[in-house]
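Q: How would the structure tokens look for this protein?
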Amino acid sequence: MKPLFALAIGLASLPRPTFGLVGITYKMWDPICAHACFYAISSNALSCSSHEEMDGMDMDMGMAMTTPECRANDTSYLTTLAWCLHTRCVGIPTSKLEAYWEVYPTEDKAVAPKWDYGTSLYNVNMTQPPTRELGADDMLNFTAVVPDDAYDLQFRTLEQMVNEETIHARYGVALLVTGFATPIFLTWMGYLPYMTGLLDKIRPYLVYPSLIGTYHVRPLPYLLGNAPTVGQGLYIALFLILNIVLSAVNFRSAQPSAWYTSRYQEIMAWIFYRTGVFSFALAPLVILFAGRNNILLWMTNWSHSTYLLLHRWIARIYTIQVLIHSITGLVLYQDMGTYSSNLTQPYWIWGAVATVAICVLLLASVLPIRRWSYEVFLITHVVLNVFVVVGSWYHVYLRFGTEYDYVMWMYTAIAVWFFDRLVRVMRIGKNGMRRAKVVDVGDGYVRVDVEGIRWSAVPGQHVYAYFPTLNPLRPWENHPFSVLPTAMLQSPTQDDAKGSEDSQHESEDVEKHGGSSAHAIPAFDSEGRRTTAGLTLFIKKSTGMTKYLKAENRLLTLLDGPYPNNSTASVLQCDRVLLIGGGIGITSLLPWLNSHPNVKLY
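A: Here is the predicted structure in token form.
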């Protein structure tokens, strides 16, 4: 006889023609009465069934194995199922029952029953309706009546599963929407009447200060990371509390259950399902916040650094959900006695790969590793992320196929990642392949001039520069640099002769000129003509890709940008702007000189 736990995780063998999210875009097991009829008779052997012998059992006690072709052509099975639908699905339109019949009765939508629902019901003797009930161990070789207790058991179990899956999907959407919409709501709220003055009073206390002393820009002791600001901390707290609450409420038991032998097993299963859904629901948000082309950067006034900090915190919550999902699944399967049989299944192995990868990824992303070698961190981050996404995909694909709502979350996560990468490629393609002139200006600094780039002197922008020929073994390496139009490095009143004279001072370090450095070095194109086009990067050599930079006239350069840093609108509305910078940081301040009428640079 079929064990109670045989359908433990999601009825993967059942064909599912519907695509979307349970309870949002479609109803699961609709109509439930029809599916309850099927499961009430699905374990009974048919005349065409084969038997799988089990240790210690004779042929008659073996497990009945019934193929889709067997179900499709067995008269007693079809008439029994049709009679159950006729008597149990009262009030359900015949068209819906016919739609069910086209897909589900054989457990394989590619194998159609020999009769449709109407024909199968027609072959039931209506003058003498069936009266003999089907026993649990009976062979189904007659038109049988499904007992009330067997039908009710299946109906109650399926109904509870539908309720739980609906809650999981809706709560998952709630998490995703909350994480995505909160920055938009808080930004747009600032444009409401009378809000400007109120927010100006609140921000110095509830937004800007660090949550832990002065540890925000500078890291915490022992390189534990960067503390969030109070505003960032409120977002993190809101999201964490929402995860905890939604992970802990609305669990119900429907014992006795056709799948689980105890209330403990059933509740563990619901926790197992929900944390799995939540981890998938958080995946798009984790990827979005880490992206350069995060659409929230265009819709809100939150900075890229804020989203990166939130990315790290949401990734930690995501990892916790994954670990709870894995641990509860392990405990549940052991309690049900199915752990050893599932351990070698491909879907289980891929799930384990994704779980291990996300744990290693979290440990490999700590601040000491990022400071030790950002290039190593970046490579391991990308590779491990591939294992997480691929492992998660195969985990659900091999278990449920592509017609289950879990894959919707993965489609969303992959789409977010693909969009970010596509826009990066498009930006690089738009800027084209450039040849840069590199000049060593001393003290470990180099000046990189890229001709032909016409970008406005907008403050608060950066670009990701690729120099593929610097390290041919790692051509993908890139780093962000502040955007500085070359035209800002020349005086508009200089003539060519004066410009030629001043160009002899290119080797001087830019910050040595103080506030006047923005007008010290004239800009010329490759033919010696003065030009307003061009982009200049001042780079301090470090231990990574930049250490290979040296004087060169035609360095292959690819530019991904420009990208915004922080929102500058509120600063530009001030009466006076005071800028203080030194070293390489001066390049990010120079564009402010052309953007505000009353600015002072030190």
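The two ends are 84 Å apart (CA to CA).

The chain has three domains: 32-146, 162-249+265-426, 432-601.

Upvote if useful.
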